């Protein structure tokens, strides 16, 4: 069962948040630029959503600066 299915009704995620979470689940270690490019979401929007997903304890952030990547928690 995927993390997204486990979160289910407990967390109300927007369609963009769901698509980002699903992308990270299927592409562990991805960078914000990869997410933006592959999903067609503006990079500033992705960078705004990622901290919210971290705060909700759904994803983890590794590294800093250009080396930052994200994985499912």
Keywords:
mainly alpha, 2 strands, Arc Repressor Mutant, subunit A, 73 residues, globular, 4 helices
Descriptive account of the structure:
The chain has 73 residues and is mainly alpha-helical. It has a domain at 26-73: Winged helix-like DNA-binding domain superfamily/Winged helix DNA-binding domain (Arc Repressor Mutant, subunit A, Orthogonal Bundle). Helix content is 52%, strand content 11%. It contains four helices and two strands; from the N terminus they run ααααββ. The protein has a two-stranded antiparallel sheet. Strand 1 (59-62) and strand 2 form a beta hairpin. Helix 2 (15-26) packs across helix 4 (43-55) and helix 3 (32-39) packs across helix 4. The longest helix is centred in the C-terminal third of the chain and has 13 residues, at 43-55. The protein is globular, with a radius of gyration of 11 Å. The two termini are 14 Å apart. The model has no long low-confidence stretch (mean pLDDT 89).
